[in-house]
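hiii, so i know i said id send this last week but things got crazy w the move. better late than never?? heres the sequnce for the chain we talked about at the cafe, plus the structure i predicted for it. fair warning i was half asleep when i ran it
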Amino acid sequence: MEALYAIAVGVLTTCGLYLVLRGRTFPVIMGLTLLSHGVNLFLFASGRLALAAPAVIGESARPTDPLPQALVLTAIVISFAMTAFVVVLALRAAVELRSDHVDGVDPEEDWRP
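okay and structure toks below
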């Protein structure tokens, strides 16, 4: 099960990095979203979560650590805000530059200065 979890984190991170390096704005936004999901899964894995173990000390002999859960909840909120900001920024750039390319100039277009 740990190998499957590690593969899922690796695939999300790899696909996210590939999409971040694309030339258009929508794949960059999707890449950032995949990277944030990969980081969230990595934070869960770093916390050694236990099944059916309460996060309250004194309720059981081995309570689970609530810190990774708090970190992931915070990361979800931050990634949602970041995604909303980047979408608005990309829409504004597309309207002003009349192109959705990251640099503002489409390399496939016949462009002569």
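btw The mean pLDDT is 85. thought thatd interest u
miss u guys!!
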